[in-house]
């Protein structure tokens, strides 16, 4: 039951991120809108690096792998859409494979991240919140740099009453 909840919630954020990224030009994916901020490409690389580090051998090794270059995930540069999409897909695939193997009893197990002990349930809550924050950043950046008319991912402004007649966003992606 709880594992399915995590799968569903992660799936919602993946879909939101993909809908936002799809509305941005290749150039926009690498745009840094202000000094010291991140581009969508940087955020995707960071999310992917985090997923790969945390969820590779999730139950048996520390979640901060020694080969991860977290600082490199935030370096400015130019990445093609194909590279960004590959990083996105890789990260989510590692997460989804780890979640697929989890059973409810695993949620009480203890794992480590950077040497800190956490129950699996707590680690998943922490990860979900972290990734949701970054998806929100991606959506905001996408709205700022998107060319053309924005296709709403959430309830469009001024349309709450119409939406409430058929609330579809609360449903996760089809599995």
Q: What does this entry look like structurally?
A:
By secondary structure, the protein is mainly alpha-helical. It has one domain (2-164): Four Helix Bundle (Hemerythrin (Met), subunit A), CATH 1.20.120. The chain has helices at residues 2-21, 26-29, 40-55, 70-73, 81-101, 120-145, 160-164; strands at 110-113, 116-119. A two-stranded antiparallel sheet has the order 1-2. A hairpin with a 2-residue loop joins strand 1 (110-113) and strand 2 (116-119). Helix 1 (2-21) packs antiparallel against helix 5 (81-101). It is flat and about 45 Å long. It starts with a helix and ends in an 11-residue tail after the last helix.
Strand order in the sheet with the most strands: 1-2
| CATH superfamily caption | dinb family like domain
Structural class: mainly alpha
Q: Determine the N-to-C terminus distance.
A: 15 Å
The biggest sheet, with number of strands, parallel, antiparallel or mixed sense and barrel status, is:
2 strands, antiparallel
- CATH architecture grouping: Up-down Bundle
Number of strands: 2
**CATH fold name, please?**
Four Helix Bundle (Hemerythrin (Met), subunit A)
Total number of helices: 7
Q: Give the CA-based shape.
A: flat
Q: For the residues shown, what is the average pLDDT?
A: 94
Q: How many distinct domains? A: 1
Q: Rg to the nearest angstrom?
A: 17 Å
**Helicity range of the residues?**
40-55%
What is the CATH C-level name? Mainly Alpha
Catalogue the unreliable spans: none
Q: Strand portion, in percent?
A: under 5%
């Amino acid at each position: 039951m709880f594992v399915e909840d995590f799968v569903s919630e992660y799936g919602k954020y993946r879909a939101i991120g993909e809908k936002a990224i799809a509305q941005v030009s290749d150039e926009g994916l690498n745009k840094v809108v202000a000094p010291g901020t991140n581009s969508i490409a940087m955020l995707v690389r960071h999310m992917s690096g985090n997923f790969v580090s945390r969820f590779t051998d999730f139950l048996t090794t520390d979640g901060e792998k020694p080969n991860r270059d977290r600082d490199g995930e935030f370096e400015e540069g130019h990445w093609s859409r194909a590279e960004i999409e590959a990083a996105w897909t890789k990260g989510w695939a590692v997460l989804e494979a780890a979640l697929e193997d989890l059973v409810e009893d695993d949620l009480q197990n203890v794992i480590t991240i950077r040497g800190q002990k956490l129950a699996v349930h707590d680690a998943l809550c922490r990860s979900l919140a972290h990734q949701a924050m970054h998806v929100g950043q991606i959506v905001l950046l996408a709205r700022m740099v998107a060319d053309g008319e924005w296709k709403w991912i959430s309830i469009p402004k001024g349309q709450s009453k119409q939406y409430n007649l058929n609330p579809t966003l609360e449903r996760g992606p089809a599995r």
